């Protein structure tokens, strides 16, 4: 049975200390560092928020998680010193990091709730999240010259706490953030340095000389939009997929495809179709696209030789599947699956270099969001392996789907539910609550879940 969660109306109070700048604990180089051409694209001009929920641990009684994490953060910044600097704009709008050592923003807070108030299964969207990661005035003002990282630790009435972090996406992708917070957690538990030492090496993902765009990059080609006006306030929901749901999807496929396809491919084919149907396109011939996030750290896109282990910059590309609304929603699930597999197969080391070359030659274009659906699988980022001394988090992952007020971006987060079923949570963002309901109805139809079997 699919576990679904939509927006909650729960309200609670948070008392915050004033935000403070935390600098590196020791001396760091003062230098300029260029971003890669994969980092420096318009589609990454925002912050990426992450949250972790930790229960009370009697063995840590008397210890303040905010103090422990703040001290570990300061020590970790000695190794991640570019994050304590500020972005500057160079010739032709090229971005670079001025390693000033000014520091990152840190907030200590307390909330008058317990973990139980968030439900048996901790799933996004989380109520009052703006209170759990306060948007400090001017901290997100135009990205340039602003702090690159904001962190808040909120203590709860039950003795547990919530750790929230917002990182400038130009500096890190999901794996980079995972590496950073793991390093902070290791130092929090007494290590002198992170087990994986961060490296910059952004020149590895800069454009070649001369640039050579060798692929058709549909992900950056803008399309005309032929659809009704949608709400400007997107709605959020999350859906849990365990082994039973994935097996049910595989049963809908020809045997050879069911056996040769990864869970990501099967799930993405299903989610793409449901997302497209939920939007109720007026034009059945409207072109729609699926942008699959493929990371150069992993197969099938893994570099040879591989990127350095400590690389924490953006290392992903977005190979794209293309169809029309009518064809995608009218054909069996295996049609969408074949398109997903074909797109993923296109991702290669050469595809990454071609993307970097496109950025350098075409003015670093933004992703095409018209008719597009972006899926990012963060199950390999290691968010759930972090332990600051209080044990593993109950939920560790992205806060929401979408980018700011733009829907059409979905994340897969590893999760174990209250029944101890291991799977992943799919974070969905659509233009309205009605569209969320249509998505759920379409999904239930594919999985053949009857109305009486739906969760309350």
UniProtKB/TrEMBL annotation:
InterPro entries: CAT-like_dom_sf, Plant_acyltransferase. The keyword Transferase applies. The keyword Transmembrane does not apply. Keywords: Transferase. It comes from the Eukaryota. It holds the Pfam family Transferase. GO terms for molecular function: transferase activity. Belongs to the plant acyltransferase family. This is Uncharacterized protein. It comes from Arachis hypogaea (Peanut).
């Amino acid at each position: 049975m699919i576990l679904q969660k939509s927006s909650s109306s729960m309200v609670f109070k948070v008392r915050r200390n004033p935000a403070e700048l935390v600098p590196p604990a020791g001396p760091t180089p003062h230098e300029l560092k260029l971003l890669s051409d994969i980092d420096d694209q318009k589609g990454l001009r925002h912050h990426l928020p992450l949250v972790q929920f930790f229960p009370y641990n009697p063995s840590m009684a008397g210890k303040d998680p905010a103090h422990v994490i703040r001290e570990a953060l300061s020590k970790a910044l000695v190794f991640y010193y570019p994050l304590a600097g500020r972005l500057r704009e160079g010739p032709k709008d090229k971005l670079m990091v001025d390693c000033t050592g000014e520091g990152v923003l840190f907030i200590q807070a307390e909330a008058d709730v317990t973990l139980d108030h968030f439900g048996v299964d901790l799933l996004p969207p989380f109520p009052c999240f703006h209170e759990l990661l306060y948007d400090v005035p001017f901290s997100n003002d135009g990205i340039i010259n602003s702090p690159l990282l904001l962190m808040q630790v909120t203590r709860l009435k039950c003795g547990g706490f919530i750790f929230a972090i917002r990182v400038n996406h130009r500096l890190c992708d999901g794996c980079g953030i995972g590496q950073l917070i793991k390093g902070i957690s290791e130092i929090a538990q007494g290590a002198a340095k992170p087990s994986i030492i961060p490296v910059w090496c952004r020149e590895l993902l800069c454009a070649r000389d001369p640039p050579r765009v060798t692929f058709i990059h549909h992900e950056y080609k803008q399309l005309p939009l032929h659809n009704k006006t949608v709400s400007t306030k997107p709605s959020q929901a999350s859906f849990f997929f365990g082994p039973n749901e994935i097996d049910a999807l595989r049963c809908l496929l020809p045997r050879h495809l069911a056996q040769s396809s990864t869970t990501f491919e099967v799930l993405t084919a299903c989610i793409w179709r449901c997302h497209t149907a939920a939007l109720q396109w007026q034009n059945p011939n409207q072109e729609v696209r699926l942008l699959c996030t493929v990371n150069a750290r992993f197969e099938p896109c893994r570099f040879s030789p591989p990127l350095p282990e400590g690389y924490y910059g953006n290392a992903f590309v977005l190979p794209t599947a293309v169809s029309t609304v009518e064809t995608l929603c009218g054909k069996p699930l295996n049609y969408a699956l074949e398109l997903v597999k074909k797109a993923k197969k296109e991702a290669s080391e050469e595809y990454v270099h071609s993307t970097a070359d496109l950025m350098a030659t075409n003015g670093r274009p933004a992703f095409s969001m018209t008719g597009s659906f972006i899926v990012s699988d963060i199950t390999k980022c290691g968010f759930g392996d972090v332990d600051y001394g209080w044990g593993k988090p109950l939920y560790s992952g992205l806060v929401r789907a979408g980018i700011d007020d733009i829907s059409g971006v979905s994340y897969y987060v590893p999760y174990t539910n209250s029944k101890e079923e291991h799977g992943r949570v799919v974070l969905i963002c659509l233009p309205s609550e009605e569209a969320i309901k249509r998505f759920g109805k379409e999904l239930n139809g594919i999985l053949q879940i009857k109305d009486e079997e739906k969760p309350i």
